[in-house]
Amino acid sequence: MAKPTPLSGFPELLPAARAVEREVIDTLSRTFELHGFANIETRVVEPLDRLAKGGEIDKEIYVLRRLQADESADDTGLGMHFDLTVPFARYVLENAGHLEFPFRRFQIQPAWRGERPQEGRYRQFTQADIDVVGKDELPFHHDVEVMRVMVQALGGLPLPPLSFQVNNRKLIQGFYLGLGIPDVTAAIRQIDKLDKLPAETVADLLVEHAGATADQAGRCLELATIRVADHTLVERVQALGVTDDLLSRGLAELSSVLDGCADAVTATDGRVTVEANLRIARGLDYYTGTVVEIFMEGYERLKSVGGGGRYDALADDGRTTYPGVGISFGVSRTLIPLLADGVLAGSRAVPSAVLVALADEESRPVSERLADRLRARGIPCEVAPAPQKYGRQIRYAERRGIPFVWFPAAQPGQSDEVKDIRSGDQVEADAASWAPPEDDLRPTIVTPTPDPQEKTQ
Amino acid sequence: MAKPTPLSGFPELLPAARAVEREVIDTLSRTFELHGFANIETRVVEPLDRLAKGGEIDKEIYVLRRLQADESADDTGLGMHFDLTVPFARYVLENAGHLEFPFRRFQIQPAWRGERPQEGRYRQFTQADIDVVGKDELPFHHDVEVMRVMVQALGGLPLPPLSFQVNNRKLIQGFYLGLGIPDVTAAIRQIDKLDKLPAETVADLLVEHAGATADQAGRCLELATIRVADHTLVERVQALGVTDDLLSRGLAELSSVLDGCADAVTATDGRVTVEANLRIARGLDYYTGTVVEIFMEGYERLKSVGGGGRYDALADDGRTTYPGVGISFGVSRTLIPLLADGVLAGSRAVPSAVLVALADEESRPVSERLADRLRARGIPCEVAPAPQKYGRQIRYAERRGIPFVWFPAAQPGQSDEVKDIRSGDQVEADAASWAPPEDDLRPTIVTPTPDPQEKTQ
After folding, report:
1. Would B15-345 and B354-441 be classified into the same CATH topology?
2. Is B62's CB within 8 Å of A76's CB?
3. Do A100 and B399 touch (CB under 8 A)?
4. Can you identify the CATH homologous superfamily of domain B15-345?
5. Contact B275, B163 (CB under 8 A)
6. What ipTM describes this predicted complex?
7. pLDDT per position as a tens digit, A326-359
8. Residue among A143, A147, A131 at smallest CA distance from A261
9. pLDDT digits (tens, 9 = 90+) for B163-203
10. I need a labelling partner for B33 at 20 to 30 A (CA). Which of B131, B184, B286, B365 fits?
11. Which residue of B has its CA nearest to A33?
12. Nearest one of B425, B421, B354, B351 to B384, comparing CA atoms
């Protein structure tokens, strides 16, 4: 069979890059679990009617059919999920009787969209989602909780600085209501276009589609320019002279989010900042309070690398409503461009920290037992594939990035030796006590200074 | 929207059961990495022509089409992989220039088959595969290696006893050749039916389809009854009076596999046994040497829960051949029946080891800071969702299986206290030094004595 070529939109990683992705996923999982979030994994398919939003089905869904099915029974009625929220909402409804609420879960899985691929947007992509879901009600403090958890989780990764830009739907809606805009929902939809269209065009759209006067449209735009990280937020909004109960509640919530995250942000040492940005609306209609989008410094072209918010009805089975608040982080969207640009890399392509050398084929069992003694102490290793000259065995280790080569004693009574092939230092060693430096134990994420010539995307 | 019902063949786990699956996957991954196997993850789709085996496409493949595609461009030409071997072979060909050979990889991912679901057979199921792949050649010692690694990996899991039943295609082929059977391949295919059909029927099939005489068919069946774990293997086969070079090579290889696994088997303390079973053929045509199937005690009805072997051409791009040897373990096939039967369970549904109690809503930040101090020391915890009476907060912890409740000091100068809610013991504690017993730190796999009444499947 001929050499296959990559499929556009379905990126795959070489082993060293995959080690980076695994380390990122493990770090995120550890933080989520420290905060009491339980992991779940949902099947990749959902009935098509579940994937429909408000009766309409997005065009980018992949639908499954069995290859050998009859023409008449062509489709299975199943499509692949395009995010992790739809399957999670279904899982909550299906298993509500077996879950304790508030239910905290995290989920790190791929999702699929049949759209045209571009940098940061793929047909298969991995997401990391956290959500807290309540039964009938979910107190506001969980909004602060998910923000703090995601700040801590992403603050633990060696990524370029991340900016959490937060807003509150109640604040926007209340402001528009207090201002007297006739169609508040339409106004939010227009304001959401500010990252694509010039302000004047959006002002015109507000007049045309939301029934705003030119003055009202102007004040909506003024609100949307507010971007602060501290208490001046309240003054800045109040200075616009609009009063409304919903506005006040939204403003108080947004202030609480900023306050609640302050110490978590400080602990990230500049890796993560959180600020109020009053033009963030998020297009999706189901958000009802806190909304957040996450941007990565130097990668603004990717748009947001994560986002989420509060939805008062994540799921509803006709009798019970399940409100939720959550944030999704785009693992593929973030890592694949960083790996391609050389901003992140894996320190090596194999888990092995040690290559156990092989004197001759007959002594393979000796080398294997030796390797097993190191493994029993948590040191990943492999035995040389062939009893070549030691120089060639060392080059074999070098090509794989294995830092140490272990030479079993040539004679009984002699001592084993281990060589650090980077420094060339070779010392006597005992498999019962020797260990590599902690940093060499497993592949790690390295952040080389990117070579500008390779930075092509 | 109405309460959804489960989709047949697409099992999903509740959080406590998912904790079991995660622990199993983590344990397997750790062992694979200790042996130098690198993890990769492949996309879920392959071009349909890659999924075809020998030109024919299995009927159970799920094919993707975009929901809103034109009728004329109905199919994407992509199907979902039905195992992890096909995508791995393609990955090796596609990336051969970037890989070092022999290349050891493990892969733990779902696969999909559109077939009728039954116990242990699902439409979506997770597999854990290890393979070693060489370029042009792959020495035999890697057959022993993958067997040893899988024995160690599965021996580290709290499963019912597992039996690795090993054979060698060269041994069977050589025996049939030495015996003078006209169609060796057909004979292997018939012998493979011994687990479904009575011996006499298989003897008739050997005569009918493989051109064997009645005497030859009888000796084939005699060979197939040999089942031993030690050196008597060689005598037993030689006693059948057939001599052939290929037979001798296969017999030597099979003996080496048994020998090479002996110490690894001993170390599992009875969890894993390895024996030669000369009726194991494995239906797939591409095996060329070692073949193995894994069975689980008390779950023989599942047939094998894993298997694999040596294939001299895992992949081939017309210029280079990539031989391989590997074993696949059915994670879903094994765990889902064990979880359903109550043989395995998760100790709790949440990661939290500690619930930090809440005196009143105003002191939430105090409880949050306290929780963060425990988290910084690796102790998963959550803060009570509401400032209910402490008795109700304790019951909240109880319902989730959280073993400890932490009571922050009521007054400055007083001490915090922590209660083990199982024993009722409550002691003074300091968040800078207190830790739960190791076993309580995270959810663990427990093996309750199953209630026979619940064991319904």
Report:
1. no
2. yes
3. yes
4. Bira Bifunctional Protein; Domain 2 (3.30.930.10)
5. yes
6. 0.94
7. 999 999 999 999 999 999 999 999 999 999 999 9
8. A147
9. 999 999 999 999 999 999 999 989 988 998 888 899 999 99
10. B286
11. B351
12. B354
